[in-house]
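Weekly sync, protein design subgroup
Attendees: M.S., D.O., the rotation student, P.L. (late)

Item 1: inverse folding check
M.S. brought a backbone from last month's batch and wanted to see whether the design step gives back something sensible before we order anything. D.O. pointed out we never logged the input encoding, so this time it goes straight into the notes. Structure tokens as presented (247 positions):
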């Protein structure tokens, strides 16, 4: 499991409520990951300082050298670090993983299938603007950590949420979506219900702090009805009646 997939899994875990009068309430847990998209490796530290859980280096305008990747890894600290590449070669994934990159964001048309053979690297597929059903179903067997949507309908309507539901339902993958830093609490809650696991700041990475604050204010995830445990009480055997002796 890649570092990104593990972080998504932990953010989606439903925590049990504390029991008892004296039980201490834990600090609010972020139920979505906040990501920042930066233009170069030097901006990674600034994005991390503003609360980004995930930092993505957009290198589509050029390459990412091994030394830049190593420097970015050191600046990211414990944050998940990704790279958005214009093209991926057969050895790209292994080289960048050894340099500290946790996942790659890529385009299906420009990426050879052999580039996805590194099992220790995470992969996120950038979706076309309007993917059809067959495209989404074909993505399910791929070892992907998520699907990236660069734009969302704004304002988010019920029809827009249904469209997101279709993407997640057909692909069975977590969704990574670009959102405005001033996205409302209700919009983020609706996106989370539609399967969005990572929200990427649409704009300068400074917006990560504001978006992270809104994410932390979201109510806890509710356990689905079919996932709720059924409590059963042990059946007790009634005590046997003592037989009265015959007089």
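Designed sequence read out in the meeting:
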């Amino acid at each position: 499991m890649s570092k990104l997939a593990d972080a998504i899994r932990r953010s989606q875990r439903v925590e049990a409520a504390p029991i008892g009068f004296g039980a201490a309430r834990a600090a609010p847990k972020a139920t979505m990951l906040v990501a920042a998209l930066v233009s170069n490796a030097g901006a990674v530290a600034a994005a991390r300082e503003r609360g980004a859980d995930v930092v993505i280096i957009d290198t589509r305008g050029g390459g990412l050298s091994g030394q830049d990747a190593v420097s970015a890894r050191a600046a990211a600290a414990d944050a998940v670090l990704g790279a958005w590449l214009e093209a991926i070669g057969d050895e790209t994934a292994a080289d960048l993983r050894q340099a500290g990159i946790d996942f790659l964001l890529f385009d299906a048309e420009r990426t050879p299938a052999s580039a996805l053979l590194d099992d220790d690297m995470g992969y996120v597929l950038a979706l076309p603007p309007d993917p059809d059903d067959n495209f989404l179903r074909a993505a399910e067997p791929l070892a992907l950590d998520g699907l990236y949507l660069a734009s969302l309908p704004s304002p988010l309507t019920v029809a827009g949420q249904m469209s997101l539901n279709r993407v997640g339902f057909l692909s069975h993958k977590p969704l990574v979506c670009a959102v405005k830093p001033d996205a409302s609490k209700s919009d983020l809650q609706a996106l989370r219900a539609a399967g969005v696991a990572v929200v990427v700041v649409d704009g300068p990475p400074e917006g990560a702090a504001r978006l992270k604050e809104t994410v932390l204010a979201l109510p806890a995830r509710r356990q689905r009805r079919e996932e709720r445990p059924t409590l059963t009480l042990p059946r007790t055997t009634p005590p046997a009646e003592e037989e009265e002796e015959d007089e």
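Discussion: Confidence is low (pLDDT under 50) at residues 226-232. Residues 3-13+29-222 form a domain with the TIM Barrel fold (CATH 3.20.20.70).
Action: P.L. to compare against the previous round before Friday.
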